Model the fold of this input.
Amino acid sequence: MRVAAALSALALALFAAHEAEALKSPLQYEHEFTAWMKTHHLTFHDALEYARRLETYIENDLLITQHNEEKKWGFTLGHNEYSHLTFDEFKQRLTGLKFPQGYVEERQKMKPSGLFKNVKAPESVDWVAKGGVTPVKNQGMCGSCWAFSTTGAVEGAAFVASGKLTNLSEQELVDCDDNGDMGCNGGLMDHAFEWIENHKGLCSEDEYKYEGKQGVCRKCKPIVKVTGYQDVDANDEQALMAAVAQQPVSVAIEADQREFQFYKSGVFDKTCGTQLDHGVLAVGYGVEDGQKYWKVKNSWGASWGESGYIRMSREVGTPHGQCGIAMAPSYPFATVIKEDEEVFKNESTVAAVQNVGKSPMDYERQFAAWMKDHHLTFHDAVEYARRLKNYIFNDMMITKHNDEKKWGFTLGHNQYSHLSFDEFKQRMTGLKLPAEYIQQRLAKPPTGLFKNVKAPESVDWVTKGGVTPVKNQGMCGSCWAFSTTGAVEGATFVSSGKLPNLSEQELVDCDHNGDMGCNGGLMDHAFDWIEKHGGICSESDYEYHAKAGVCRKCESVVKVTGYQDVDANDEQALKAAVAQQPVSVAIEADQPEFQFYKSGVFDKTCGTQLDHGVLAVGYGVEDGQKYWKVKNSWGATWGENGYIRLSREVGESHGQCGVAMAPSYPFATVINKDEKVVKNLTSLASMVGSSAKISQCGDKSTAAVSFDNLEITPKSPKRGKPITFFGNGDIKHDFDSANFNLVVELAGARVFSHDGKMCGETHIPLPLGLGHIDVHGFKCPMKTGKFSDLKVDVNLPIIAPAGNYEIKLVAGDGNAEDSLFCVHVELDLEFEESQRISRVYEIMAEM
Done:
């Protein structure tokens, strides 16, 4: 009963934040959202998750309504199964095109083939109407759009060649295609066409069903073969038109427009870019009311768009086409496999066994023991043969490396011995750097932060007790999250003496600050997200599942107050930083030896194409060889109980495998009990209007400072708009520092406090969605005389709960308690409404 009451209160509360824009009543929104949940078979048992999803639904509804009422564009928007997702969540889960570095640029530079130069294409084509397109599918929460574009193109090509429409397996590509593609972490259609050709075919959807997550490759019977593929000339819509007239064509687009999420019908004619991030299938073209369009099959389910399709404007005046559709088209040559063409695939395994020092029987026994140790079974004979072949190849590499004794480290079998290196890379890295990120880091002038610091000869944070046990990211590109939590755990240990075990899954599910869950991320982005979010939860409260899910509520146990980038390409600065605390570092793990590293100092040459986030937890010297001690996230059976030692000071400024190129570390501490907010207050908003009143409290004259003027703007603040306090006056005596204390009260209860320095700029994120405060402080030290440089910005979001926000600023030498000034911000409440809000708090606190 209490939960139901809380849900009702939350629904009304959230509506108030948007009432100025919304035309529907709170009750209408409740009914509408309930009906939507029923249609899409969704239930939110957690009251706060319900509130968060209702708020997102309302915001999305406002976008849809505004777009449709403006009638500015040739398409309409509408609700679908994604109406409860923010656009960041949507993008993270429902795209997945990944190009090799320089691929698009190379395509643009290629000399035109002229293949369709003299071809006159018909005025309109529709392969759906011709029967050459299978029903619309749904990639789900997996970045596998490339696989759906691939199967669609192969299905179409096979239909043209044989007159038969086959329904092919995307899951086989997700699980098995190791030709540069990365399952749910992205891929490219050309790579997949090539893999199918080399693999001698692709199986049916019926035999190898789609699961929306990556699994172990298994055997199936191919029913269609690919004999090659053709890239259509880039930036030539006439060539693309002729190609589509011939058969369905795989195309890449930029789907990075919020309107894509809710496209319903019409011709999508809004300007979009050319940062290609989504693979789809061009299945036709035509003209409607004078508007030329492409008909495109998507992989977001039949409830999206025009029964799963989108029409995109054609010949828009730019060579790359709408959303870059003409930049990288391609199509395969394919046909149905006849019964007498079936291929048995384990012949290469037999050949491999005959060419090694051990007998086939030796290898079978060795592989059987390995499978038993790692609890793996391959019931399918062909899959067993494939895995045995990988094991043999890997064993030969391990044996050769160790026999040569050329390097300072050894290799050994581990839980990844059945994987090819391409499969391993695809699943076990995940660092994603923004464009130009490294160049910007390298161009930054040195801070000199550790210039005069003499670091000890060796450090080991593991033996100091500042590192949690080694974890395993599993088949998810979340290394960045593990590097982040390790650094925050270490920083917390240094600041408080307590070692928390923090949640990577919360980052995978919730961090949309440029990070993409299992599709990669960056540690700096994650530090920033934790700071703005008000903290991060424990591993026990939010356990790891190795796949992206819906963000859920938990109680933060550690907060981050900032982070510091270590000067790039400076191993001495990195050494000093690691002596201070564990440091997040990025490396290139693109060496086969990484897969089977066992022990010693990894001193083999490697590159600087950073693709993996790890944690530097120490350094030292062994037999004259300097090394970094690095914690990985590939489980404790890998390496030295989950760690690797990388050679240090190798003569290159970037360090071994780029370890010194982009290090960073956070400032963090345990959240004290008096800082924790009453449970479940997130996303509560006032049930009344969004106005606020401000009153100044305390004396404007203290022992340290006298204010001549204290301005508060605007005079009638609103939620969602910043409130600024600006002061000037006299400093009565010199002081070296200025401290402040911030207290937040809601419904009469103190729920948050913070102490900090008021010299320079300070950003204070408030917990649980309450907004943030920016203090633009004194230019310390301060001398006696006039001042005019004190400003405080309070940003209360539109969903800020009603209550009193008290800001009390304290100045002195670090111990003084003289108030500079005190301000109350009170969101207007009548007595009865105040009582009702308080009752909501009580209900939520008791749930």
Q: What stands out?
A: The two ends are 10 Å apart (CA to CA).
